[in-house]
Amino acid sequence: MTILMRVSNVSNVVTFTTKGQVVIPSKVRREFEIKVGTRAAVILTPDGILLKPVTREYIHSLRGSLKNKKVWGAFQEDRRWERER
């Protein structure tokens, strides 16, 4: 199954706060169904930083991509790291 991402030619400029926070414009939040509490994967690319909302569709697209990897150990380590913060 392929998930198509909607791409807009409109460039939105945002400002980072001293804590590294950024506000995503409401039009973009609506388009990508970003609600309060939605998490985003931060992906480093050759072109810059990609924020990818972690939605049901995104999780579904990962199905099968982690076969033969030590996923459970990585998951546990990530959870431990989050608790320590």
Q: What can you see in these coordinates?
A:
With 85 residues, this protein is α+β, with helices and mostly antiparallel strands. The protein has a domain at 12-64: Pemi-like Protein 1, Chain: D, CATH 2.10.260. The protein has 3 helices and 2 strands, in the order H-E-E-H-H. A two-stranded antiparallel sheet has the order 1-2. Strand 1 (40-45) and strand 2 form a beta hairpin. The termini are far apart. The relative contact order is 0.12. The mean pLDDT is 77.
Name some characteristics of this structure.
85 residues; alpha+beta; two-stranded antiparallel sheet; 2 strands; 14% strand
In short:
The protein has about 80 residues and is of the alpha+beta class.
Mean pLDDT: 77
Give the strand order of the largest sheet, numbering strands 1, 2, ... along the chain: 1-2
Helix-strand topology string = HEEHH
Radius of gyration: 15 Å
- Quaternary status: single chain
* Largest beta-sheet details: 2 strands, antiparallel
Query: What's the CATH architecture name of the domain at 12-64?
Result: Ribbon
Number of discrete helical segments: 3
Low-confidence stretches: none
Termini gap: 36 Å
Which structural class best describes the helix and strand composition?
alpha+beta
Helical fraction equals: 25-40%
CATH C-level category of the domain at 12-64: Mainly Beta
Q: What would the CATH topology of the domain at 12-64 be? A: Pemi-like Protein 1, Chain: D
Count the strands?
Answer: 2
- Proportion in β-strands: 5-15%
Give the helix/strand layout:
Blueprint: H1 26-31, E1 40-45, E2 48-53, H2 56-61, H3 71-84
Antiparallel strand pairs: 1-2
